[in-house]
Amino acid sequence: MRIVFIGPPGAGKGTQAEKIIAKYKPAHLSTGDMLRAARDAKTEIGLEADKYMSSGQLVPDDVVIGVIADRLKKDDCKAGYLLDGFPRTIAQAEALDKMLAEAGTPLDVVLELKVPDEELYTRLSKRGRADDTPETIKERIAVYNNQTSPLLDYYGKKGLLKTIEGLGTVEEIFARIEKVLDAPQGGCGCRCTS
Ligand code: ADP
Fold first, then answer.
1. Looking at CB atoms within 10 Å, which of 70, 90, 139, 166 has the fewest?
2. Which has the closest alpha carbon to 57: 118, 117, 136, 129?
3. What is the rounded average pLDDT of the residues 129-141?
């Protein structure tokens, strides 16, 4: 299955992504992880990306699109993948559509993990990753609302969007995801999770 996983910072996307990988075994394509690895390895892309990541801004589209285009060509993507943190802008979504259309491998489903902003602030303040300062948290949530949330409409119109309520226990939330992923493909196409 080819899945896109969208959610604001702090929504618990990483935790649920791990559970999806463990059960359904898609390749895990996290642009955040890839960019952090590039930064730590001090590659040219990594050093360029770090300028944006450290302030909560998005890395430029062409950089991230290049990283994903290379990754999608690897063999382990043939059996399906979970795109985690990509696309994050309409330009990225359009570039992805183009790549997948050329390869004849359309997306199966787009999962949105939905959590109210107030809860995100609470969770992120407790997490303590290097880019989790109060200023960058605020910036990353604003960037999500301005640049990434338009994707919900974009994929909604294509009939691919399934919204998962992100409040509850880890197990409760995963059960909601399983319900969507276990449903026959091409369901009702609306925003419900039935
Ligand atoms: P989050 O905690 O916000 O979910 P991620 O681990 O997905 O963060 O990404 C961390 C940072 O990496 C982002 O704040 C951004 O700077 C950069 N990044 C990751 N994916 C993308 C992308 N698709 N487009 C642009 N920048 C990205």
1. 70
2. 136
3. 86
Q: Is 191 a catalytic residue?
A: no
User: Average pLDDT in the 54-60 region?
Assistant: 93
Query: Residue 194 has what pLDDT?
Result: 45
DSSP class of residue 147?
A: I
Q: Which residue has the higher pLDDT, 177 or 133?
A: 177
Rounded to an integer, what distance in angstroms lies between the CA atom of residue 130 and that of residue 133? 7
Tokens representing 63? 């950089």
Angstrom CA distances, 153 to 1, 43, 93, 110, stand at 22, 35, 12, 11
Judge if the beta carbon of residue 64 lies within 6 A of ligand 1.
yes
Is 92's pLDDT higher than 90? yes
- pLDDT score, position 186: 52
Give one DSSP letter per residue of 50-97, joined into a string.
HHHHTTTPPPPHHHHHHHHHHHHTSGGGTT-EEEES---SHHHHHHHH
How many Cβ atoms from other residues are within 10 Å of residue 116's Cβ? 12
